[in-house]
Design a protein that fits this description.
With 239 residues, the chain is of the alpha/beta class. Helix content is 33%, strand content 16%. Strand 8 and strand 9 form a beta hairpin.
């Protein structure tokens, strides 16, 4: 399914319907029963920037590791918590504004579907330890890419970059074992193929942990925060 046949507002429903085919979830991982009509990462939210009107189909796919915990999701359902108030969104908005990335032009999603049935919302996703569950999420991730056909994929954090790398061999072999974030000049790749769809990829530190981790980034003559800003700017210039 290509973006030329799909309207912006239809995209979340198409992906959520396909998500029902993912199969059984695991211990400490619960399915998202309802996609909320809010600006939030898919599948908990619609994955679109709803704060401003737009009819343009997103050309950028932004990928985190997973949505959140059952407790945090339920708070959003009850209207007691807004995803946009999280450090992830606050830092992402600032970074994208500085790098001239249009928030309306992105679809915000995750590489792992489901909610953590745990108290802690950081660290390795519980489902990442099960090979079958990982493979089923990779299949769904590829469906996201093939449906959106993004010009640019932006990953947030190590797990997201490693999952994306599994779908593009050998183009992203250098992103294995966290090297997308730890190796100089390795965070920005062009001509990356995903089952025939070719796009650019940028690996960022997760914006929820930005202050503590971004200092290690190196891109050309730039270091730290500036390195990530310049990677994004270069990616946008070639879009």
């Amino acid at each position: 399914m290509g973006c030329t046949k799909l309207k912006r507002q239809e995209l979340p429903e198409v992906l959520f319907k396909k998500l029902q085919e993912l199969g059984d979830y695991l211990d400490k991982v619960k399915p998202v029963e309802k996609m909320l009509d809010i600006t939030a990462f898919f599948p908990g939210g619609r994955g679109l920037w709803l704060e401003e009107d737009s009819t343009d189909f997103p050309s950028i796919l932004v990928l985190g590791q997973d949505f959140s915990t059952v407790k945090a999701y339920e708070a959003m359902v009850e209207g007691n918590k807004a995803d946009l108030n999280s450090p992830t969104w606050k830092n992402l908005i600032k970074l994208f504004d500085e790098a001239d990335v249009d928030l309306k032009g992105c679809f915000y999603s995750n590489v792992f579907m489901g909610l953590r049935d745990t108290e802690k919302m950081t660290g390795k996703f519980p489902g990442a330890r099960d090979k079958d569950f990982v493979n089923r999420n990779l299949t769904f991730l590829l469906f996201q890419i093939e449906t959106i056909k993004p010009k640019l994929i932006i990953t947030l954090g190590r797990p997201a970059s490693e999952m994306v790398a599994k779908l593009s061999r050998p183009d992203l072999d250098s992103w294995d074992k966290g090297k997308a974030l730890s190796s100089p000049d390795n965070g920005y790749k062009i001509n990356v193929s995903f089952n025939g769809h070719v796009c650019k990829c940028v690996a960022l530190e997760h914006t929820s942990m930005r202050n503590s981790n971004v200092k290690r980034r190196v891109y050309g003559k730039y270091e730290g925060h500036e390195a990530e800003v310049e990677m994004l700017r270069d990616a946008m210039k070639l879009s």
